Amino acid sequence: MQTANKIALVTGGSRGLGKDMAISIAKKGIDVIVTYRGNQSMAEEVVKEIESIGGKATALHLDMADFKSLDAFVAQLTLTLQSKWNTTSFDFLINNAGMGKTVPFEKVTEEIFDEFLNVHFKSVYFLTQKCLPYINSGGRVINISSGTTRFSNPGYSVYASMKGAVEIFTKYLTKELGAKGIGANIVAPGAVETDFNNGFIRNNPQVKSMISSLSPFGRVAKADDIGSVVAFLCTDDAKWINGQRIEVSGGINS
For 14, which of 36, 161, 162, 209 could close a Cys bridge (C-beta 3.0–4.6 Å)? Predict the structure, then answer.
């Protein structure tokens, strides 16, 4: 049985870019499931905000660093779909959850490497695989990458490498899921002023000023510069956009 509204799953939807993606998607009339890693109260606030504009939403716990927890999450997801929406499927998987750390190449440890691998690539790969049986034809997988796969920032070698892997993965999803009527795209933000990486850009005026000087618009991005693009890709207006890397960086380093 199908729900009246389409449903999007936004991982890491409790704060930052994910929060704005979830709210922007809800404004398109799409119901939303957000996940959180550590702060349930922030996730519940996002749910309340979506409900305040007439949308339907819920929050589930998901730790992308804990690869072995994915099966339990998908089981909880299916139960939630049945209990809250009376359906067994959803439409849009937005793989947004992430973590940041600025680490010079020479100081990267195996522990740091493995955490980035799990959060930004391995769990994205297998969460998508495990969710695939529940994604409707006409649905989309939207993977969040980074402008740093095109231009290099010292200290981001691990982060950008994993995002580069996700970009290649997305190309293969496009080819292999097309027969099921499911598309896949990449959205690659540039520098954004959020709490990501402990608010590295937001809390460092010199860094913010330097990055702003590289942009034709003379500023770094706000969360709503990115969320609106993800929301657009969840609409019928974007139905023929498939297999694309859409960089949303305001023209930085063009």
Answer: 36
